[in-house]
Design goal:
Layout (H helix, E strand, L loop, with lengths): L1 E2 L1 E10 L2 E9 L6 E5 L5 E3 L6 E3 L23 H14 L3 H12 L1
Parallel strand pairs: 1-6
Antiparallel strand pairs: 2-3, 3-4, 5-6
The structure holds zinc ion (ZN).
């Protein structure tokens, strides 16, 4: 089962009324089309004729394509060593130190 990629949720005037629409992109062939935001559970890609399911809303990742900063931190070896010594200085574990760092960032 493949899931449609929903991006760019927006309001469009359809038949004189504002409706929520979204761009559904086929993950297989990247064909995209505008569909109603709600009221459907699957659609057929007009290009490759695969059935795509509507993805379930994910917590914290709205299909609006909004750019939420990722909470995971990627660090290099040098930064890891730095974090390790700072964590040791505070008497906490490195992962706790990094978690606090992320929290302070928000
Ligand atoms: Zn397709």
């Amino acid at each position: 089962m493949i899931e449609a990629i929903l991006v760019d949720k927006r309001k469009e005037k359809i038949d004189g009324r504002d409706r929520w629409v979204v761009t559904a992109q086929c993950p297989t062939c990247e064909e995209s089309r505008t569909v109603a935001f709600a009221g459907w559970s699957a659609l057929i890609c007009p290009q490759c004729l695969r059935e795509m399911h509507r993805p379930k809303p994910r917590r914290g990742r709205p299909p609006s394509g909004g750019t939420r900063p990722s909470r995971s931190v990627r660090i290099g070896d040098a930064e890891w060593e730095k974090a390790k010594s700072r964590a040791a200085a505070r008497g906490v574990t490195v992962s706790k130190y990094l978690r606090d760092l992320v929290r302070a960032d928000q």
